[in-house]
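Please produce the structure of this protein holding zinc ion.
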Amino acid sequence: MLRVNLVDLDRSGTQEIKGEIPGDSEFWEELDLVLVEPLGIALVVTGIPGGQVLARGEMTAVVAKECRRCLEPLEVGVKESLDLVWLDPDEFGDAEDGEFRLVEATATELDLAPALREEFLLSVPRFVLCKEDCKGLCPRCGVNWNIETCDCTLEEPDPRWEALRTMKNE
Ligand SMILES: [Zn+2]
Ligand SMILES: [Zn+2]
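Below is the modeled complex.
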């Protein structure tokens, strides 16, 4: 699905790519990600005379993550617009700087997968919170402060926590 036949595209036509990539596809092999819903891809690939290829559209997915503070499992929706450009290295040899990618003017096929993987990874937030004011876990006994309280800080006051608490109570 992600291999575009450039001969068919004739470098001046367009081709629509629409489909889903399930979480167990080889697409994800080297990525440390768990998908809750398959990656949805909707792209229009355009060939431009002279060897450039454009791909515009978007991808959506739901990824399993955990709250950075309390480690609760979360489902995070990802939606990313795509605007990808491939240039002929003979003309734009030094252009591969992240914004552009390269494809030989004589190539007969273009595999979109590496570019889509890159874009997807960039669009997944590295850290998420279950809620803005998540209280996190007690660093001493590990209880989830969103659900219960503990006496750790009372039994063994830590001056840093004391200072924080005083600030909060002011
Ligand atoms: Zn949390
Ligand atoms: Zn505790």
